[in-house]
Amino acid sequence: MQQIQIRDLLNHIGMPTALFAVAFGIFYGAKLDFVLASFIFELEGGQWQLTNHWLFSEVLHSGSRLLNNVILANLLGFWLYQQLSSKTSSERSIALTKLVVSLLLSFSIVALLKRMLPAECPWDLQQFGGDLPFIGVFADRPATMHPIQCFPAGHASVGYAWVALYFYFLPVCAKKARVVLTIGLLLGLLLGVTQQLRGAHFFSHDLTTLWLCWVVSSLVYLFYPNRSALALKTSQEEKYV
After folding, report:
1. R_g (Cα) of the chain, nearest Å
2. Above pLDDT 70, what percent of the chain?
3. How far is CA 101 from CA 95, 163, 221, 223, in A?
């Protein structure tokens, strides 16, 4: 295991988690979620007019998810080819492995939490034209209530999971790392706002997805063995053969 500096843990996990906790407390705890959702709802004339709009539903929702699946499938294919064709682990192949692991974990964890933490979407709630009362993520729910899978935001993960590219480029080019990080954040924001305009999510749902994807990518980057660690392990093993 490579040596992890306390500063790295604070910078990559500690500070982002603290910022997330404050933001989540403001939007979810202080109900700023409802203020923002009410503003959007009233802006659309007291109904979710953009729910089935072709641009938001077909292009930015279904289309972006399909494109993400195609890109991810090609990336997995390239990674598998690299693993089968190379007998040694270079820094590039290890970086690619970290990227693949980060992406798969991010998508999987968000999907799993959506099943474990039932929560209402704005369009489900009585005050926004739905038929359900607001219960929230952490409160006990009536056994007869059908679970609604709206937390965290699954569609936003199509963008936010790609913040893992930041750690792919970080060891070799900090400038490229910042560029791809910005792209990932903007893409996640775009897809998150798309769902908010459709009435599918509160802002705190997107914040949670961003935090999860960032923490997962940070943990993989910090704790997955790098080339020097693997070389040291192999050298030590050869001494006892």
Report:
1. 21
2. 91
3. 10, 13, 10, 12
HEC string for the chain: CCCCCHHHHHHHHHHHHHHHHHHHHHHHHCCHHHHHHHHHHHHCCCCCCCCCCHHHHHHHHHHHHHHHHHHHHHHHHHHHHHHHHCCCCCHHHHHHHHHHHHHHHHHHHHHHHHHHCCECCHHHEHHHCCCECCCCCCCCCCCCCCCCECCCCCCCHHHHHHHHHHHHHCCCCHHHHHHHHHHHHHHHHHHHHHHHHHCCCCHHHHHHHHHHHHHHHHHHHHHCCCHHHHHHHHHHHHCCC
| pLDDT, averaged across the chain | 90
Q: Is residue 55 pLDDT above 90, yes or no? A: yes
Instruction: Report the C-alpha gap between 209 and 204 in whole angstroms.
Output: 9
pLDDT, tens digit, for every residue of 128-160?
999 999 998 988 888 787 778 899 999 999 999
Per-residue pLDDT at 238: 36
